[in-house]
Design goal:
The complex is a heterotrimer of chains A (about 375), B (about 100) and C (about 210). By secondary structure, chain A is of the alpha/beta class. In chain A, about 50% of the residues lie in helices and about 10% in strands. Classes of the chains: A alpha/beta (about 375), B mainly alpha (about 100), C alpha/beta (about 210).
Chain lengths: ~375, ~100, ~210
């Protein structure tokens, strides 16, 4: 019976109740920070409505906006690639690396690349990949996958990370001080940034009007990778578009307040043109998105800006951990996105909801998540 | 709905505030779900049980004597655990309170 | 006919396929919302400065209010032991006091201890400063040093991101960024650590030139 698989994994997670409580409280604290940040913006309700309407509008005119974006990006001397599915995406990346005789590259966070299983594909083809987001580096060293889209290693305790770093980065055994561990990762990854000739990043928003795209990080890892490398390859789902630059004002106000309760990420980097002597490639990826767009009841999920607010408020996610979903994007939004990618594989995910509706209420772009579930 | 920024208004709380001699306790998580909804408690038993346990613990932590709700199934869900733990905390439907059911 | 159709599909590029599928699937056109209400802001420059300082301090950076460039250098010398350390600046007025970066291989910047950079403007609601490659060609400058100092003119603080994007609405840049505070991470158990990959600290010198 396929239907009980997620539930079984959640049950295993619940065998260690102290850990469940810790997971629950750690993420509830993030929800709490989100509440403080959003309640501080008087026009929060109007911002959500505007974000929702802009996304609705974009999806209703996506054909045109994709062509506008392409035209403007090409005018910026960026190179545009189109990928119908994960395989084509991965092949494009590999070919670009091969053409430039690059065998090692650095990558910042991208759920899309995770979804395409890019890392194992590249490694199989002899390309070394290092994830530069601290959380992603940790799960990479552990041989795991991210359990949360914004906080990839939130399922891991610092003692476990300390042990991992002792083995891989030579930190003192038994030391689990987050400050010391972060410093060790900084030193090691700095060397990575300085030696990799290709950097891969995700995209948070892409602007049809200007052909530019925005990448948001707190660590600055996307910038360190992109500015030090010769080639920057950015992959984006076709739904990442917004019509105008000024709309970034709406979405950047919504995104990080919803995600972590910060007023904005440390770095909101706008990439328009390649730097002198360098290359900028943008891969526009479908991989199931046009199918989701064709389904009137589910196309709303394409409005998602990947803030993860619905994870941090979900009573089910908080008590079952991201890995129980066995999907790249877990949590409430993953439960409606993943069955689209593979209905059989993820048939049980929509059951992972008590239908309480909190996910819909925190959603910055007003996706009716619990109704879709 | 604590997620929204609109001024908080709860009809049940508004009604309960009109009843003499009861005190409304504020919980750590004012409106987190009890975990019973739909087929969820069957399909995802372990998580459902844990949500319920935490929900009841939040009431106990804040010194509640009664748990009330407009939804019978939520109340039954939590009552099951209270029974099992022989807790002195009781569940009561809001209609019973509004009808003067607390002696 | 079925085989004929398959044949047509085969010669379609992914670009054509995706654009056709999008056209086929996209819902009926809905309008863009009216955003006028977000531009109505009556905060005074003084309020903007006060809000900016309070947010900047909350996100782990520091604000100094100064009158001139020598004051900037004096403060930095007080804050850092710069003996034997590399200090680089893209502020013309500071060139006499520090190294100026003129290289073409940005890997040479790896050992910079302190970087001092001008900014275009800042945003009160989130403490971010806007910089782009009009100010300095080398995009890496604000990211690679151990410590970063920004120079911001006092009158260049806008209340929200909406006003910020009004200022750059028709600007053409190759790269631009909002930078809010020092590099940080909370990936390990949600413990906040400053100095993830980029600067460990950020100082913002708000300069009041209109005395």
């Amino acid at each position: 019976m396929k239907v009980i698989h997620r539930a079984e994994r959640a049950k295993v997670f619940n065998e260690d109740e102290k850990r469940v409580d810790w997971h629950d409280e750690t993420l509830w604290f993030v929800r709490h920070k989100r509440d403080i940040a959003t309640h501080g913006i008087l026009e929060w309700g109007q911002l959500r409505e505007a974000g929702s309407q802009i996304k609705n509008h974009t999806l209703s005119n996506l054909n045109q906006y994709l062509q506008d974006f392409e035209k403007n990006a090409i005018a910026n001397v960026a190179v545009i690639h189109w990928a119908a599915d994960a395989k084509e995406h991965n092949d494009i990346v590999l070919e670009l690396l091969k053409k430039n005789q690059i065998t090692d590259m650095v990558k910042s966070k991208s759920m899309l690349k995770e979804k395409c299983h890019l890392n194992p594909f590249l490694e199989k083809n002899g390309i070394g990949v290092i994830d530069s987001d601290l959380g992603e580096r940790i799960v990479q060293l552990a041989g795991e996958s991210p359990s949360h889209i914004v906080l990839p290693c939130i399922h891991k305790k610092k003692e476990e990370i300390g042990e991992l770093f002792h083995i891989h980065l030579g930190t003192p055994k038994g030391n689990a001080d987050p400050q010391l561990l972060t410093e060790a990762a900084r030193q090691s990854l700095r060397d990575t940034f300085l030696t990799r000739r290709a950097a891969l990043t995700g995209v948070n928003f892409a602007v049809a009007e200007t052909g530019e795209f925005v990448v948001c990080t707190n660590e600055g890892n996307a910038d360190m990778g992109a500015h030090l490398a010769d080639i920057h390859i950015a992959s984006m789902g076709i739904e990442k578009l917004i019509p105008k630059r000024k709309h970034l004002g709406i979405f950047l106000r919504l995104l990080t307040r919803s995600a972590t309760g910060q007023p904005i990420t440390t770095y909101s980097s706008h990439f328009a043109k390649p730097a002198t002597g360098k290359e900028l490639h943008i891969i526009l990826v479908d991989n199931g998105r046009t199918r989701q767009l064709s389904r009137p009841d589910f196309r709303n999920s394409l409005k998602c800006i990947r803030c993860s607010a619905c994870f941090n408020t979900c009573p089910v996610y908080l008590r079952s951990g991201g890995h129980s979903y066995e999907s790249v994007i877990s949590g409430p939004i993953g439960s409606i996105l993943s069955p689209n990618w593979d209905m059989k594989e993820h048939a049980d995910l929509p059951f992972a909801s008590s239908l309480c509706g909190s996910c819909s209420n925190v959603c910055p772009v007003k996706i009716d998540i619990h109704e879709q579930l | 709905m604590s997620e929204l920024t609109a001024p908080a208004f709860s009809k049940p709380v508004h009604l309960l505030n009109m009843v003499d001699d009861i005190e409304i306790i504020h919980l750590e998580r004012v409106d987190e779900c009890c975990g019973f909804g739909g087929t969820f408690c069957v399909a995802e038993e372990a998580v459902s049980v844990k949500i319920r346990k935490d929900r009841v613990a939040d009431h106990i932590l804040h010194g509640a004597e009664y748990i009330t709700d407009v939804d019978m199934s939520c109340l039954m869900h939590m009552e099951g655990l209270l029974h099992r733990d022989k807790s002195t905390l009781k569940v009561i439907h809001i209609a019973e309170i509004l009808n003067g059911g607390i002696q | 006919m079925a085989s004929g159709k398959a044949k047509t599909e085969k010669i379609m590029t992914s670009r054509e396929k995706i654009l056709a599928a999008v056209k086929e699937s996209q819902p009926e056109l809905t309008p863009l919302p009216n955003l006028d209400l977000f531009y109505q802001n009556i905060d005074t420059p003084e309020q903007n400065l006060t809000n900016f300082i309070s947010i900047v301090e909350r996100i782990g950076a520091k604000v100094y209010q100064v009158q001139d460039y020598p004051q900037v250098m004096n403060q930095l010398k007080e804050d850092f032991d710069l003996a034997g350390k590399r200090v680089v600046s893209a502020v013309r007025e500071l060139d006499a006091m520090v190294d100026e970066y003129k290289g073409s291989n940005n890997h040479e910047l790896a050992d910079v201890e302190l970087m001092i950079l001008p900014t275009h403007f800042a945003v009160a609601e989130n403490g971010a400063c806007w910089v782009n490659d009009e100010l300095y060609q080398e995009r890496l400058l604000p990211f690679i040093p151990q410590h970063l100092a920004f120079i911001l003119k006092k009158e260049n603080i806008v209340p929200t991101l909406h006003q910020a994007y009004e200022l750059i609405a028709d600007k053409s840049y190759g790269f631009g960024a909002f930078i809010a505070g020092p590099s940080k991470t909370a990936d390990i158990e949600q413990s906040l650590v400053l100095g993830a990959h980029c600067p460990r600290s950020l100082r913002i010198f708000v300069m009041n030139l209109s005395f």
